[in-house]
Design brief:
Structural class: alpha+beta
Number of strands: 4
Number of helices: 4
Strand order of the largest sheet: 2-3-1-4
Helix content: 25-40%
Radius of gyration: 14 Å
Shape: globular
Distance between the termini: 8 Å
Largest sheet: 4 strands, antiparallel
Order of helices and strands: EHHEEHHE
């Protein structure tokens, strides 16, 4: 059994802010996957509702995720999200189902 942490971060863009949200989420990929403890970072969009996007993330530990939240690229996107989201983003933290 893995001790990794899977995150589903969900976003809803304000009308007219879909492209900016997509661009900001895509700019998070490279610096995030370069972090120690980041095992995966994939933004996705709902093809039927382009204002809705998610990031599927996988982290080696809660500590790695918490460190991610302190870094400049996360701090930047958090400020931008305050401006362009229709509602606060949500984070679902998931772990493996115990046997």
């Amino acid at each position: 059994m893995s001790n990794t942490l899977t995150i589903v971060a969900s976003f809803v863009a304000k009308p007219g802010q879909e492209a900016r949200l997509r661009d900001e989420l895509n700019m998070m990929i490279a610096p995030s996957v370069d972090e120690d403890g980041c095992l995966g970072y994939q933004p996705l969009t709902d093809p039927n509702r382009p204002e809705r996007m998610v990031i599927l993330e996988e982290w080696a530990s809660s500590e790695a995720l918490n460190y991610h939240f302190t870094l400049p690229h996360f701090q930047h996107v958090a400020k931008v999200l305050d401006e362009i989201l229709a509602e606060p983003f949500t984070l679902r933290k998931l772990t493996d189902i115990p046997n």
